[in-house]
Amino acid sequence: LKESKVCEKVLTFSTKNPEADVYGYEIQKDGHETVFMVKTELFDEEFRLTMPGLFNVENALAVIAASILLEIPKEYMHSGLLRARSSGRMELYGSADKNLIAVVDYAHNKLSFEKLFSSIKDEYPDYNIVSIFGCPGKKAFIRRRDLGTVAGQYAKKVYLTAEDPGYEPVEQISKEIAQYVEAQNCPYAMIEDRGEAIKAAMDEAEGKTIFLITGYWITESTLYPFSFSRPFNPISSIRQRTSTTSPPSPSISLIIASAVPPVAIRSSTITTLSPGLIERLWISISALPYSRS
Questions:
Q1: Residue 254 in contact with residue 80, Cβ under 8 Å?
Q2: Nearest to 84 by CA among 107, 46, 50
């Protein structure tokens, strides 16, 4: 907010501060959808998100604030947010009986893991959490401790697998993560092949279970030595075990920054600001039925 004083116009958004220009409140789940109220000087009404993750409400408020600055009619805010999806971001799949749910997400560091796991625990309190992830080789070593600790705190069981190991043996990476999982008294298994890890997790699940399948590798090949890669599509593995409940691909593309309320939005470049984070907010205007000339 201090830096925003140089901006011509400032809008704040929050789920905690009622004085924010865009205030989100009465956040609740309705099946797989998230329902919340939004109060601004222009309106006070209900919005819906089909993308799971209670933290995405903050992202939605950022979009609403940017849309207000762009003078986009609120009906398109509603329709855009209702259809907003991003490949690899909180993709939801489920079995017909809803006993098995898989969430695919790019989460790969401590902050994103904590947000993901805590949100899923709040949204699906009756489900066991099973985590499937790995860490890259020869870099970001602290993540092995952080991700292992967070997963161990929330999950009923953790399956450690490969994620761009490079020249470092996958078993070595997994063993290092495992010590932190074990420190949380959480059982684990080490399965290098990611498809097999997903299959094993689903085969061994008991009762209502939600699988958190995370990391960079979810839409890319895994990198191994000598420029050799092993292509993998986790969605195929999941669909073999479940029937999809995800909405169809969206006609609106929203890439947004997580926010610690209240957050300023600069209208000149549509940039969201939060402590330690500056990330551009892009709205695909061409995908909207309305755009400014």
A1: yes
A2: 50
Q: Tokens 């950022």 belong to which residue?
A: 62
d(CA 192, CA 197): 7
112 CB-side CA count, 13 A: 15
- Taking only the tens place, the pLDDT of each residue in 109-164 is 999 999 999 989 988 999 999 999 999 999 999 999 999 999 999 999 999 999 88
Contact criterion met (CB below 8 Å) for 221 and 213? no
Q: What share of the chain is helix, strand, coil (3-state, %, to 5)?
A: 30, 30, 40
For residues 95 and 242, give the distance between their C-alpha atoms in angstroms, rounded to a whole number. Answer: 4
List all residues 6 or more positions away from 119 whose beta carbon is below 8 Å from its beta carbon.
Answer: 52, 53, 54, 55
Q: Report residue 247 as tokens.
A: 């909405």
Q: Angle, nearest 10°, between helix axes 170-182 and 142-154?
A: 50
Rounded to two decimals, the pTM is: 0.66
- Dihedral sign for Cα atoms in the order 274, 216, 112, 135: negative
| The residue type at 97 | D
Q: What is the pLDDT of residue 217?
A: 55
Residue 8, Cβ neighbours under 10 Å: how many? Answer: 7
pLDDT at 205: 94
Taking residues 206-231, report their average pLDDT.
Answer: 65
Give the number of other CB atoms < 10 A from CB of residue 73: 12
